[in-house]
Design a protein that fits this description.
Structural class: mainly alpha
Number of strands: 11
Order of helices and strands: EHEEHEEHEEHHEEHHHHHEHHHHEH
Number of helices: 15
Helix content: 40-55%
Largest sheet: 3 strands, mixed
CATH class of the largest domain: Mainly Alpha
Oligomer: single chain
Distance between the termini: 42 Å
CATH superfamily of the largest domain: Formate dehydrogenase/DMSO reductase domain
C-alpha cells in the first residue's frame, strides 16, 4: 500500500545542510537542536573511502518505537498523513523515547525540559505541499511522495535497519562512487589502526554523568524488594520507618530523571506497551502494599507486595532492551534481577544462596571484563579490582570474622554494586545513525 515517505538519494546529497536550515526556519526550532540532521560517512575525508551523507529526521515508522514505548502516551499517529505527532503538553521529559528511536529523531530540549521532533510538516503535506526540508534541498537529494516501500528500499550500508519499517525510500550509493580513483605515489602508507585513531568520537547518549540517579534508584528498588521478600517469607520484621525513608529516596531519585515533575502521574498511562510504565506502576503498587502490610500485619498483602516487587525488578531489566552493550552480553552481573537475589541472600543469611549468587556474579563480571579487553575497550582496572573485592570480601568475612555486623557487610556489597551498575551505563550505548556510519567506516578501513 502506498503511503507518504521521504525519498533520499545518497548519490546527490552534498551535505550542504540546506534541509536542516529549511526545517529550522519552518518550525522555529533552536539551531543547536535541529530536528533534521545530516550524518556524514568518512568525516576524516580519507581519499580511498567514499564520502557520502544521510539527511535524516523522524522517519515516521510503521512500528514506531517512540510511540509504542512512551509511558505518557505523548505520541499519536495522524491517520490521514501517517505522521507520528509528539504532543508537548503530554510529555514528561523522561527521554525514554530517545533511547528507543534508532534514528535519533526525538530530541530532549534542556530549556523546555521536554522532547521534540520532526512532525512531517503535517500541516504542509495535508495541503498537498512538500515538507520544508524537501523544498529547501537545492540538489534534489531529498524528496517526498507517495510510495509503496519494499524491504530493499531500506537497506543500504550505514543505514540503521532494525525492522520498524521507516517511511523512507533510499537510493544507495552507486558502486562507481564508492572509491574515487586517486593516484598519489608520494603518499605515505597509513595503517588501519592509524586511520581508526583519526575517526571522530561519536558522543554517546548514555553516560554516567546523566544516569547516576538511575544507578542509585535501581539499587534502591532491589534493596527494598529483597528486604520485603525476606520479611514476608521468613517472618522477619521490617522496620517501617527505614523502609519508607529508603522508598522516599528512591522516588526522589527517579524524579531527577524527569523533565516535568508535576506530570509524573502520566508515567503509568501506557501499561499495555511500555516497560517504563510497568516499572513505575508495579513499584508504586509494591510500596503501597508493603506499607499497608506493615500496619495491618496482613500476610496476604505482604505476599502480594512481593509479587509486584518482582514485576518491578523484571521491568527494570527490560527497560534496557534498547541499549547496545560493548561486551554484547545479554546476561551480565549488573542486572537488577541478580542483584535483588544477592541482597535477598545476605539479608536472609542463607549461606548456600549467598555463595551461589556471589559466585555467579563473580563469573559474569570477570567474563564481561575479558570480553571488553578482547575488544580493546577500557576495563577500568582500579574499579574492576574494587568490584571484585566487593564480591569476595563479604564471603571471606562471614567465615573468618562472623562478628562483623550485617550492616558492615551490606555496605561493602553496596559499594561493589554501585561500581558494577555504574560500569553498566559506562559500557552501554544507543544505536544511532552516526554510530552506525562509524561502524561501517571501520569495516571499510579494515579492507584497505
Amino acid at each position: 500500500m502506498e503511503k507518504n515517505v521521504f525519498l533520499f538519494d545518497t548519490n546527490k546529497c552534498v551535505g550542504c545542510m540546506a534541509c536542516v536550515a529549511g526545517c529550522t526556519i519552518e518550525n522555529g526550532t533552536e539551531t543547536l537542536l535541529n530536528w533534521r540532521v545530516v550524518n556524514t560517512h568518512n568525516k576524516i575525508k580519507h581519499p580511498g573511502l567514499p564520502v557520502f551523507h544521510f539527511s535524516l529526521a523522524c522517519n515516521h515508522c510503521e512500528d514506531a518505537p517512540c510511540m509504542e514505548n512512551c509511558p505518557a502516551l505523548a505520541y499519536t499517529r495522524d491517520p490521514k498523513t501517517g505522521a507520528i505527532i509528539h504532543h508537548a503538553e503530554a510529555c514528561i521529559g523522561c527521554t525514554y523515547c530517545t533511547w528507543a528511536c534508532p534514528y535519533d529523531a526525538p530530541k530532549f530540549n534542556p530549556n523546555t525540559k521536554i522532547v521534540e521532533k520532526c512532525n512531517f510538516c503535517v500541516d504542509r503535506i495535508s495541503e498537498g505541499r512538500k515538507p520544508a526540508c524537501v523544498e529547501a534541498c537545492p540538489v534534489g537529494a531529498l524528496d517526498f511522495g507517495q510510495r509503496e516501500i519494499r524491504t530493499e528500499d531500506r537497506i543500504t550500508p550505514g543505514f540503521v535497519n532494525v525492522g520498524i519499517k521507516p517511511s523512507i525510500v533510499l537510493n544507495p550509493l552507486r558502486e562507481a562512487q564508492r572509491k574515487p580513483q586517486i593516484e598519489n605515489l608520494d603518499a605515505s602508507a597509513i595503517s588501519p589502526d592509524q586511520m581508526q585513531a583519526y575517526l571522530p568520537d561519536v558522543p554517546s547518549k548514555i553516560s554516567l554523568k546523566k544516569e547516576w540517579t538511575l544507578v542509585l534508584f535501581t539499587l534502591s528498588v532491589a534493596g527494598l524488594v529483597a528486604w520485603q521478600a525476606v520479611g514476608s517469607l521468613y517472618q522477619m520484621p521490617v522496620e517501617p520507618l527505614w523502609f519508607m525513608l529508603l522508598a522516599v529516596m528512591a522516588i526522589v531519585l527517579t524524579s531527577f530523571h524527569v523533565g516535568k515533575k508535576l506530570r509524573m502521574w502520566r508515567f503509568i498511562l501506557n501499561l499495555k506497551n511500555s516497560w517504563l510504565s510497568r516499572e513505575i506502576f508495579s513499584f508504586s503498587a509494591f510500596l503501597g502494599l508493603s506499607v499497608l502490610s506493615f500496619y495491618t500485619a496482613s500476610d496476604m498483602l505482604a505476599y502480594l507486595s512481593v509479587c509486584f516487587g518482582i514485576a518491578s525488578i523484571i521491568s527494570v531489566d527490560m527497560l534496557y532492551q534498547f541499549l547496545k552493550r560493548k561486551d554484547h552480553m545479554l546476561f551480565h552481573s549488573a542486572m537488577v534481577s541478580i542483584t535483588v537475589l544477592l541482597f535477598f541472600a545476605w539479608i536472609s543469611g542463607n549461606i548456600i544462596l549467598i555463595s551461589f549468587i556471589s559466585l555467579m556474579k563473580l563469573v559474569l563480571y570477570i567474563g564481561r571484563k575479558v570480553k571488553l579487553h578482547q575488544q580493546k575497550q577500557n576495563i577500568l582496572p582500579l574499579f574492576s579490582g574494587l568490584r571484585i573485592v566487593g564480591i569476595c570480601l563479604p564471603i571471606v568475612l562471614i567465615f573468618i570474622a562472623p562478628q562483623f555486623s550485617i550492616f558492615t557487610v551490606l555496605s561493602i556489597i553496596l559499594v561493589g554494586e554501585i561500581i558494577d551498575r555504574s560500569e553498566f551505563y559506562y559500557e552501554s550505548d544507543i544505536l544511532t545513525p552516526q554510530s552506525e556510519l562509524t561502524k561501517f567506516m571501520e569495516k571499510e578501513i579494515r579492507k584497505q
